[in-house]
Amino acid sequence: MEEAIQDQTSDSRNAWDTERNKSVFILRQLVLRDFKLKYRRSFLGVAWSVLNPLFMMLVMAAVFSMMMRFSSDGIPSYPLYIILGNVTFSLMSDSTSQGMGSILGAASLLKKVRIRRWLFPVEKVLFAMVNFTISLIAVLIVMFAVGVHPTWTAIMLPIFLVYLGLFCVGLSMLLSAVSVFFRDVMHMWSVILTAWTYATPLFYPAEILPPWMMSLEQFNPMYHYVCYIRELLLYQRIPGLELNVACLVCGLVMFVIGLFVFRKTEHRFILFI
Known about the structure:
Elements: H1 2-39, H2 48-67, H3 78-100, H4 102-105, H5 107-112, H6 119-145, H7 157-181, H8 184-199, H9 211-217, H10 221-233, H11 241-265
């Protein structure tokens, strides 16, 4: 009897390991496919993941520091302030924009092959995180250019990525599920992202906001994530407990909501894709 139970437990464990390895393999292949497609027939290739945030930083620094006179005595380096906000927000916007259409984009595959549907929005987030990691080269270039050298606080970056990754996965799963049934969401999301960009202190100092707007920022998840990475690399100090809790709670809440909606609706995807 005991041997039968042990055999059954062993079979269950082997089945779980096989399924997990299969999911990891599929995720890896999907990320590699997107990586090749993005830089296919591009002369500079992956270098664009470094050049793009640099060019955006130069343009925005010129516009907002010289023309609009945005500055703050509390900001050690305005260019670094801008690029950290941009690359962080881009990780969210790129992963959610791609993740939102991931189920619809994989319609032909889902109709032919039995595969876990959650892999597609999660893969888009992982791909965006790969690009984010590459864009950190641009951040390093700016840091050395402005005389702000990395310190030991940078070791907290993986924790930051876990916080933001949870948020992006949850939001991507939510959007990918909703967009299957309501295609208008795909058109509305770009407008929402634009409004969200200006509502988050990416290129202007948070100090210029009136008190009532600063109160609203506490309900803006991206405000907390942008503040977190700036604490690590710009101000070079470990974020406080309150900021850590805010980032973790935002990530967990969005992940739970996205997973719940995705699980509740995924069995009907095949009828609408």
